[in-house]
Amino acid sequence: VPMVAPGNVQVHVINSTLAKVHWDPVPLKTVRGHLQGYKVYYWKVQSLSRRSRRHVEKKILTFRGNKTFGMLPGLEPYSSYKLNVRVVNGKGEGPASPDKVFKTPEGVPSSPSFLKITNPTLDSLTLEWGSPTHPNGVLTSYILKFQPINNTHELGPLVEIRIPANESSLILKNLNYSTRYKFYFNAQTSVGSGNQITEEAVTIMDE
């Protein structure tokens, strides 16, 4: 098997899900056989959103021939990763380069895990929601938009409310009685807004 590990491994993080890794080629005489390529082993150490990781799944990408760089796609935003690089010949892999640590920046969050509308009264509705399963960063706020829908399914004016990220419920007051409302709800990080979920609910007709 090859005798030495690739040197000077560098990681350039391009965005929250993509990084580029490059390395110096090993001297050909240390390959001790036919150079087939380089393998990059990489794995997520932890999410920086403080959700613990129970098992570490190592991923391997093979770059054929004498390439000295490669792209690592499909990374998770706002996470800490480690990687190393090994050279490969027809017999197997050489030793691993020292582990290199890199971090991905924040991304936009996944949609809130649920939105539930309860306790209808004449002029109010109670909203409850769950935080995104994948915050992909530090949540800065939630954005709630809602508008009335009339009997011919025309949409009325849209109201937008920004809600602090640590809230998980809200009572909407001063609504019209016996009116159907459509709600659009999403979470935000400093990078931007995630996917929204929608719900509809009706205030009650009379007490």
Keywords:
207 residues; mainly beta; Immunoglobulin-like; 2 domains; five-stranded antiparallel sheet; four-stranded antiparallel sheet; 50% strand
Explain what you see.
The chain is mainly beta. It has 2 domains: 7-104, Sandwich (Immunoglobulin-like), CATH 2.60.40.10; 112-202, Immunoglobulins (Immunoglobulin-like). The chain is built from no helices and 15 strands. The strands form 4 sheets. Strands 10, 11, 13, 14 and 15 form a 5-stranded antiparallel β-sheet that branches. Strands 4-3-6-7 form a 4-stranded antiparallel β-sheet, with no helix packed on it. Strand 8 (112-118) and strand 9 (125-132) form a beta hairpin. The chain is rod-shaped and about 85 Å long. The model has no long low-confidence stretch (mean pLDDT 95).
Summary?
This protein has strands at residues 7-15, 18-24, 37-47, 59-64, 69-72, 79-88, 100-103, 112-118, 125-132, 141-149, 159-164, 169-172, 180-189, 192-193, 197-202. With 207 residues, it is mainly β. Keywords: Disulfide bond, Immunoglobulin domain, Repeat.
Note the gap between the termini: 82 Å
Q: How would you describe the shape?
A: rod-shaped
Q: In DSSP terms, counting alpha (H) and pi (I) runs of 4 or more, how many helices? A: 0
CATH domain topology of the largest domain: Immunoglobulin-like
Gyration radius, rounded = 26 Å
Strand content: over 45%
Task: Name the CATH superfamily assignment of the largest domain.
Answer: Immunoglobulins
| Biggest pleated sheet | 5 strands, antiparallel
Report the CATH C-level class of the largest domain: Mainly Beta
List how many beta strands DSSP finds.
Answer: 15
Order of helices and strands: EEEEEEEEEEEEEEE
- The averaged pLDDT comes out at 95
Number of domains: 2
Which segments are poorly predicted (pLDDT under 50) over 5 or more consecutive residues?
Answer: none
Helix fraction bin? under 10%
Structural class: mainly beta
Which second-level CATH architecture of the largest domain applies?
A: Sandwich
Keywords: Disulfide bond, Immunoglobulin domain, Repeat
Organism: Ciconia maguari
Protein name: NRCAM protein
Pfam families: fn3 (PF00041)
